[in-house]
Amino acid sequence: MNVIGFIFLASLLCGYCYAAPWVKDDSWAVLIAGSNGWDNYRHQSDVSHAYHLLTHHGIQPERIITIMYDDIANNENNPYPGKIFNRPNGTDVYAGVKIDYRGNEIDNESVLNVLKGNATGNKGKGTGRVLGSTRKEDVFIYYAGHGDVHVLLLLDGTLTKHELDNALTHMYENNMYNKMVFYLESCNSGSMFEGLDETRRLYAVTAANSMQSSFATFCINDQKLPCLSDEFSATWMFNTETHNILSETIGDQVDVAIENTKQSHVCTFGDASIRNDTVSEYQGNAVVWKYTDFGITDQFHEDVQKSVKSTHQILLDKVEQLLIDRNYSMKDVKDRMSDFYEDRQRLTRLVENIVHAVVGSVTKAYHIIMKKPALTTALECHDAVIKAYHKKCIVSFNLNPYAITMSGIFANLCEVVRDPAAILDVINEKCDTRPRFRGVI
Ligand SMILES: *[C@@H]1O[C@H](CO)[C@@H](O)[C@H](O)[C@H]1NC(C)=O
Ligand SMILES: *[C@@H]1O[C@H](CO)[C@@H](O)[C@H](O)[C@H]1NC(C)=O
Ligand SMILES: *[C@@H]1O[C@H](CO)[C@@H](O)[C@H](O)[C@H]1NC(C)=O
Ligand SMILES: *[C@@H]1O[C@H](CO)[C@@H](O)[C@H](O)[C@H]1NC(C)=O
Ligand SMILES: *[C@@H]1O[C@H](CO)[C@@H](O)[C@H](O)[C@H]1NC(C)=O
């Protein structure tokens, strides 16, 4: 088809579908990138791409709340100033993204206020926009970032399962949605929804189970950029882009994600009847012109698998690359790497000592440290302990991602002890007397 023909047909089609009575413009969405920094390129890239997917499918920009640090497009390391890519040799996904909260405005308070529709709470921050959905409207939430057992990271801060549960309960009790779909991309993401009540009209889909890393993808790319995307995120977004989402169901999409996310187990929680809803209920139902050839689907899933990496591996590769860039000798590199591992061992020992001091017996401590799965129902205790551990022992989880991997041990400890007071005393005592862990790099 020639260009004129294309434009004619496209405008006819769009004019038609925007006028159509069944076009649904009453869905709301919240998109959250939890990290910052050049090496975490992929999370803001995923969120930018998701923003375009939703608006392209007809969700009104005024009904999307976007939370991202915004230090990637104009990062000093970016060889493509002002641009962000989510696919190898793909199109820029940054242009046109309307960001509501950026930089240091992003913390547990501002995110929780967005979810709870608390405009007073976010007054003066960013655009101040919060969810305004009612019992009649569907809500789609997507988070991409780092996490561990019962915790998501928000830059230097945290969003614990305890806090998220309370916000989701508030939304349910205050009739803030008809139905809700929550896609979560992070390590150990399953732990955020374990035990989710099936009657909440909420269906949650996580990139990994409670114990696994989630995986980044397109880590080796011709553009020489950091990992561009994440395995689960790339998979669901590709499904939206290449299918008619007016008939594709959430169940279809999730099954495709389960099948094609090979490095971790995609898990589902909550109200499974939502699987029968069409994707368009949550991601927009304007009929869109399909740019993507359906035939390349298998190729895409193969490409995703070509350069996957765990968060752990990304970090180690980064350390090694930094050392090599500084022209250290092989011996220097080995020494520095062993410093790095020693720092980790010191942190591990600190946490072991905390557990031991709390429970008072080596055998009990051993069981808490080694026990799996590291999940707890004592979420209030876990929330308090993680916050104290962060404040007293660690400079920043963002700079020292290894430190947050202790979250599961604290979950086990809370499951046994339940009352956080004794744990907080020990954390204060052990960490007040030593410098906080910064991370070696
Ligand atoms: C990206 O583009 C470069 C230069 O045009 C090309 O050599 C390379 O094969 C492309 N890579 C992919 C994955 O399409
Ligand atoms: C947010 O986190 C801070 C610091 O960790 C904490 O003091 C505060 O209570 C948290 N806010 C909410 C709403 O949970
Ligand atoms: C909304 O924010 C205000 C101001 O921070 C706070 O006092 C109030 O408790 C919040 N309401 C809810 C439901 O979280
Ligand atoms: C989905 O719809 C099918 C056919 O209408 C029905 O048999 C099935 O029970 C539904 N599934 C759920 C989980 O509600
Ligand atoms: C590292 O060594 C290479 C080759 O000897 C040199 O070109 C480069 O400038 C050096 N880099 C630094 C940071 O010293």
TrEMBL record:
InterPro entries, alphabetized: Legum_prodom, Legumain_prodom_sf, Peptidase_C13
UniProt-recorded Gene Ontology molecular function terms: cysteine-type endopeptidase activity
Limits of the Legumain prodomain domain: 337-431
CC per GO annotation: vacuole
Pfam assignment, any one: Legum_prodom
Keywords annotated in UniProt: Hydrolase, Protease, Signal, Thiol protease
Signal peptide as annotated in the record: 1-19
EC number: 3.4.22.34
Iron-sulfur keyword on record: no
Source organism superkingdom: Eukaryota
Residues of the active site: 146, 187
Catalytic activity field: Hydrolysis of proteins and small molecule substrates at -Asn-|-Xaa- bonds
Record-level GO BP terms: proteolysis involved in protein catabolic process; vacuolar protein processing
Family as reported in the entry's similarity comment: Belongs to the peptidase C13 family.
Alphabetized PANTHER family for the sequence: HEMOGLOBINASE FAMILY MEMBER, LEGUMAIN
Record's protein name: legumain
Organism, scientific name: Panagrellus redivivus
